[in-house]
Design brief:
Blueprint lengths: L2 H46 L5 H10 L1 E7 L6 E7 L3 H16 L6 H21 L4 H17 L3 H10 L6 H19 L2 H15 L8 E3 L6 E3 H18 L3 H21 L4 H13 L3
Antiparallel strand pairs: 1-2, 3-4
Helix pairs in contact: 2-3, 2-4, 3-4, 3-5, 4-5, 5-6, 6-7, 7-8, 8-9, 9-10
Length: 288
């Protein structure tokens, strides 16, 4: 092959590669934009739907598949097959949103809310067990499932999850959270001494160095809880339980432990109008 012909062939090949590369990059851009638009539409429709349909809509999104053709990571190969309408991680995120919405649903009868949460718990377990979520999405959905078990009063189920351990959470966190759940169960059964014992384990952990930067925001009302606030609240629970058990001395001791913590909590929340209002109302209810 003479030189002019070689040059011409090289130019044709280069042009083809360039054109293919441009098409590939454009396809990626189009695919990402299409995915974003689909996600927006799905989220909008999901949020508009009644809470009673949350689990069934998520199940449909999870099981419904569509034939798709996408460019693979290694040009010029294509990836073809059945995929969900939106990514599995996005479906997991919608499930988390549903848990949060149900936790803040004060209008529906508790029996209805509990039933809806139970349906979400079953769906979340299925997604996690199938192994189609990324590690971070799976961990996040596990914690929402844990919250759901607590909300419906399935303390044994929640403790079982904690005993197994949660990725991203220390053994101390799991043990102290399990103690808090055991305390709630003890309170429901009227075992005041056991409730105080378990709450004390939880309080000690909240005041440990591991939790020095703790803050927890309630998505239902926007209140931000500092560790001092959480500890003080639980000291007051212990005080109430001690009073009900006829132990006036222990009641006073727990109240005295709560007071300086409430003071610190007020200082931390001073620039947060919503949290300060809630905190002051709580203190007033305890006569502080």
């Amino acid at each position: 092959m003479n030189k002019p012909v070689k040059t011409a062939v090289s130019l044709v090949i280069a042009a083809a590669v360039l054109a293919g590369g441009v098409r590939y990059l454009w396809s990626i851009r189009q695919t990402k934009e299409m995915d974003r638009e689909k996600s927006k539409t799905v989220r909008r429709e999901f949020r508009k739907a009644p809470l009673d349909e949350a689990a069934s809509r998520l199940e449909k999104l999870y099981t419904e598949k569509f034939f798709t053709v996408r460019f693979g990571k290694a040009f010029p190969y294509l990836r073809m097959g059945n995929e969900p309408k939106v990514s599995y991680d996005f479906i997991g995120l919608l499930a988390e949103e549903a848990f949060i919405r149900l936790a803040g649903d004060v209008k529906s009868p508790k029996t209805d809310t509990d039933r809806r949460i139970k349906e979400l718990i079953v769906f979340a377990a299925k997604m996690i067990e199938d192994g189609k979520l990324s590690k971070s999405a799976s961990n996040s959905l596990r914690e929402r499932r844990l919250d759901g078990l607590f909300l419906i009063g399935d303390y044994d189920g929640a403790v079982a999850m904690l005993d197994e351990g949660l990725d991203g959470r220390t053994p101390e966190w799991c043990r102290s959270t399990a103690a808090k759940l055991r305390a709630h169960k003890a309170m429901e059964t009227g075992d005041k001494n056991e409730a105080i014992k378990q709450l004390s384990v939880f309080i000690d952990y909240m005041l440990s160095d591991e939790m020095k930067d703790f803050e927890d925001s309630d998505p239902a009302n926007g209140v931000v809880y500092s560790r001092e606030w959480v500890a003080a609240k639980n000291y007051m629970r212990c005080a109430t339980l001690s009073g009900e058990a006829g132990d006036a001395k222990a009641k006073t001791e727990f109240m005295e432990k709560a007071k300086p913590l409430y003071k610190t909590a007020l200082e931390k929340a001073k620039d947060d109008e919503i949290s300060v209002k809630e905190l002051k109302q709580e203190m007033k209810s305890y006569g502080l």
